[in-house]
């Protein structure tokens, strides 16, 4: 009984400690409840959060993204962003909701990392150390507090589940028949958050699979069986995203995100090492922790366990691939061009580097409590210094400042992003679409309109029947009514919504709807979760 109470007290103390650290890591960077200072994707993700507040009524929110009916939720997974939308609907304060969401993600990241680390090393101290190193990884912090890339930063929370699941699947440690479940949960979380991170995970998992063929501890038949379970369940559970996504992709040609010259976007080794030594957040780099994780193991690697040695090798390869020392020009015409920036590999590198840092700390003989306290204090001080340096960088290079008062103008901010996955035919007509021009009576002209969250409404009076074009994106599930009656939506000028109207006054309402197939996909996804809930049957043993 005493041991049980001691274990419970220790577990509670660990949870409280991790919560306090995650909270401190949030407050250091986001301590203004009415102001966000960042760069990059800030307005894009704020618009996504605002748009999701009406997701139960309509898949598209006309009050965001310049009122064009941009179908962002069909192309950018949004399930894990729903907590932010819930906070926004509850508080009506977008900046506060953004901050609370990052706090929740920090809690999830440190909690998942601690669980996976404890299970991997079978030691709670090691698990907590891993969680601390991973939470304060430079690239993870930069995603949230400099680049404002909520999706990529959130996806990193699920990486420990993916690779712990793969480790147990191939090498059979941990509980029987559970590796594939961890792998499934992790991949589902990433697929519902950030497709590029999922793409990189799949590539790395394929490489690990090849390596496992020669080093596996489990029968190939078992690995194959559980691997098929993981792939099948992941596909079924994520069907509510893939179904609409593939439908829209096949409905018409869509504009894709910009392709960059990969070699030009790769990191210069000298510049990135200097930035890493300073732990700068305004440049993509390994960070000080990543730099230590590459150099310190050179003195202790020989006595590491095999899995840790593999982690070190993978972290080295990933770090090398982020630089222009690798001939990225050879891969320019391959699917890897969707990566856009080779330094995105730093997210995976941070995970394996955190494993290496824990192995390095195993060689220090301080008491567990002292070791954890020193690491947490050092990381908080390092983050505070990085925040101070980041403020100087913001002054030097500029930044995006968003206040609560800016919420009403958010719909017209970040104009660039709304044309990723817009109808390709619309791109030559960006000017007309941006200015909300209607094509009627043979020319582009302004016309009054009104938007609510779910509908775009206008009234057009004509002297003769004609086909008009409205400044609304046309997708597979676009629906329209004219004078209260369903109307056939055609492709108008520039791939925008076209409607054939009769002479007289036409009251038009345009919206989007969920198809029956979407609701069927949700049901299938729920059924796909059932194998994850099934407990493995215990084998009877003869005593």
Automatic annotation (TrEMBL):
<feature type="transmembrane region" description="Helical">
    <location>
        <begin position="516"/>
        <end position="533"/>
    </location>
</feature>
<feature type="domain" description="Membrane protein 6-pyruvoyl-tetrahydropterin synthase-related">
    <location>
        <begin position="75"/>
        <end position="388"/>
    </location>
</feature>
<feature type="transmembrane region" description="Helical">
    <location>
        <begin position="153"/>
        <end position="171"/>
    </location>
</feature>
<feature type="transmembrane region" description="Helical">
    <location>
        <begin position="98"/>
        <end position="121"/>
    </location>
</feature>
<feature type="transmembrane region" description="Helical">
    <location>
        <begin position="284"/>
        <end position="301"/>
    </location>
</feature>
<protein>
    <recommendedName>
        <fullName>Membrane protein 6-pyruvoyl-tetrahydropterin synthase-related domain-containing protein</fullName>
    </recommendedName>
</protein>
<feature type="transmembrane region" description="Helical">
    <location>
        <begin position="74"/>
        <end position="91"/>
    </location>
</feature>
<feature type="transmembrane region" description="Helical">
    <location>
        <begin position="343"/>
        <end position="364"/>
    </location>
</feature>
<feature type="transmembrane region" description="Helical">
    <location>
        <begin position="191"/>
        <end position="215"/>
    </location>
</feature>
<dbReference type="InterPro" id="IPR018776">
    <property type="entry name" value="Membrane_prot_PTPS-rel_domain"/>
</dbReference>
<feature type="transmembrane region" description="Helical">
    <location>
        <begin position="313"/>
        <end position="331"/>
    </location>
</feature>
<keyword id="KW-0472">Membrane</keyword>
<dbReference type="Pfam" id="PF10131">
    <property type="entry name" value="PTPS_related"/>
</dbReference>
<feature type="transmembrane region" description="Helical">
    <location>
        <begin position="371"/>
        <end position="390"/>
    </location>
</feature>
<keyword id="KW-1133">Transmembrane helix</keyword>
<keyword id="KW-0812">Transmembrane</keyword>
<feature type="transmembrane region" description="Helical">
    <location>
        <begin position="227"/>
        <end position="245"/>
    </location>
</feature>
